[in-house]
């Protein structure tokens, strides 16, 4: 990763990092089968897991040693369940001798509550001082594109984040930097 990166990368949760609505499709409390990687089960053993490429993307961002902060921005009606899932989901390591780590450890900021995502990003900006122009956001819903009004780069993902979408998001963010020079 030699090209410049945004100072903050934010992800929506439902249909961006995992394939369900946490407030509708699953029921708490959640649990995990021993140390199974990337799988949490709901009350009825319905699985919750990140899309395939998400663990490596999280590992990659963590590998920047804090150069890139990571945020989750969700407007779910079940914030407690969302946090519980992030606390239980184990992210597999990049190398065989690495350790499984709870997904929540990969996030510097969690903004999880209903309402306009403008609020979510204003709060992150207030907490970190990071300019909106240094933020890249992945989300599956067009209505959340409204954060572009703040200066955040928005990348719409239709079937969750994957490596290719992640790269496209980075490209879009870099292009915007050049356009504003
Ligand atoms: Mg979503």
From TrEMBL:
Gene3D superfamilies: HAD superfamily/HAD-like (3.40.50.1000). Transmembrane segments: none annotated. InterPro entries: HAD-like_sf, HAD_sf, HAD_SF_ppase_IIIC, MDP-1_euk, MDP_1_eu_arc. GO terms for molecular function: acid phosphatase activity. CDD domains: HAD_MDP-1_like. PANTHER family: MAGNESIUM-DEPENDENT PHOSPHATASE 1 (PTHR17901:SF14), MAGNESIUM-DEPENDENT PHOSPHATASE 1 MDP1 (PTHR17901). NCBIfam families: HAD-SF-IIIC, MDP-1. This is Magnesium-dependent phosphatase-1.
């Amino acid at each position: 990763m030699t090209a410049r990166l945004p100072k903050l990368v934010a992800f929506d949760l439902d249909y961006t990092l995992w394939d369900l609505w946490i407030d509708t499709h699953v029921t708490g409390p959640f649990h995990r089968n021993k140390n199974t990687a990337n799988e949490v089960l709901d009350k009825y053993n319905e699985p919750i897991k990140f899309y395939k490429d998400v663990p490596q993307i999280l590992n990659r961002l963590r590998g920047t040693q804090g150069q890139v902060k990571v945020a989750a921005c969700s407007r779910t009606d079940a914030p407690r369940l969302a946090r519980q899932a992030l606390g239980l989901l184990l992210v597999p390591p990049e190398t065989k001798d690495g350790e499984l780590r709870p997904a929540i450890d990969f996030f510097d900021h969690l903004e999880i509550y209903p309402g306009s995502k403008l609020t979510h990003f204003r709060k992150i900006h207030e907490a970190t001082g990071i300019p909106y122009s240094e933020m890249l956001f992945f989300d599956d819903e067009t209505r959340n594109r409204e954060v572009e009004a703040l200066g955040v780069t928005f990348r719409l993902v239709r079937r969750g984040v994957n490596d290719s979408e992640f790269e496209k998001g980075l490209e879009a963010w870099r292009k915007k930097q050049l356009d504003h020079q």
